[in-house]
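Q: I'm writing a short explainer about Lysine--tRNA ligase for a general audience and would like to include a description of its predicted shape. Could you first generate the structure from this sequence?
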Amino acid sequence: MRIRRDKRDRILADGKQAYPAGVARTHTLAAVNETWQHLETGEETQDVVTVAGRVMFVRNTGKLAFAALQEGIGTRLQVMLSLAEVGEESLAAWKSDVDLGDHVTVTGRVIRSRRGELSVMATSWELASKALRPLPVLHKELSEESRVRQRYADLVVRQEARDMVRTKAAALRAVRSTLDGEGFIEVETPVLQLVHGGAAARPFGTHMNAFSQDMSLRIALELNLKKAVVGGIDKVYEMGRIFRNEGVDSTHSPEFTMLEAYEAYGDQRTMGELTRRIYLAVADAIGSRTVETPQGTVDLDGEWRWLSVYPGLSEALGREITPDTPVEELLALAAERDLEIDPALPQGKVVMELFEELVEPTILQPTFVCDYPAEAQPLARRKDEDPRLIDAWDLIIAGVERATGFTELVDPVVQREVLTQQSLAAAAGDPEAMQLDEDFLRALEYGAPPMGGIGIGIDRMVMFFTGVGIRETILFPHLKPEA
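A: Of course. Here's the predicted structure. Afterward I'll give you a sentence or two in plain language.
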């Protein structure tokens, strides 16, 4: 770094630019590759171009210098500087001033070298930006910590990192295209909220000086989107950042991208079909409808099964389990399988613990797990035919929850009751309990149509198709501060 800093200072002292305001580029590297790809080995043209890029490889000989420039998605192009074409002073300056990682501008003729390499034979060059820090060594594997912490360097040297940025962007386009094509309206709702709600999660707190008011960063998109449906936006969605002040691991981040969509007069079944269409659209955009996972091969073109929790658990245990099965019997079944479950939990929570341990990991193909015990999601609408169960599902693929869907609760009286219970739990110290949101209840009291809703974690969706962890799908994930 000291040597590079000295070069910068010398260049400036000589009256030259180390960081010019711009460059007179006429062609991207990709455009040169595409336009002159037809050239035969050794063929030269009189076509003059000006290209720019980062120097990723350099080899200097006596009267000739070679370099590989890189741009954007990783496109590379060779440039050649010969004594005869650029002159002694310019060639000497190249050899003394240019390092790996520098950005340069090169003007010259397009040729195909005698070794078959499409190239620009320089007649002149200029420094576009002097790199003061050497790039990570290309032939040595960067540690995951370094790759994630210095993503900018990771993007320069690793094609997989550049590809992931575009893969996620393509997934986002596919999601939007699917929803827009079905008449959904994309909206934006506040990140700062007076009352946190829409999920059971610990929020981040902040303070708004203008109102002298403590605020929370949103933990879900739900409540404002439902207000929009009340107002007549019958199909609405938002894809945005949400924030949960919880653990960080290979599948969880405190800040991540969530899609939520709500449809007036829809229900959990119509939202399940919408989720399937979204997944297929993303599969077509970034991968394949056949996905290899550690659990096995997933066929998205196959049946998307609906599996009720109690029958699913009954099948796994080899005996019938119903909402009437005594909790003591369930705890005994858990003990037989060396599963530790808190005996103070209600029956529905024990059922969920057993299901998550014994059934979910075995689910490979897309499956809508439905008819959960009401204790699993206290804010969900209870089924008309059996109030001990709820109108909701989780989409499980390859043993992991990928999305959730509901026939939404729109009765303002019942909604007030469950939010009041949540508020009491919050007052008693539960950091994940929702607060009572009077504005949301007022909206429901104006009359909300029956509706279905879904929530899809975009990062988990991309993780499924790419087989990487969440720290790879998020461009700049949160890490502990450097020492």
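A: For your explainer, you could say: Residues 157-304+365-473 form a domain with the BirA Bifunctional Protein; domain 2 fold (CATH 3.30.930.10).
Q: Perfect, that's easy to follow.
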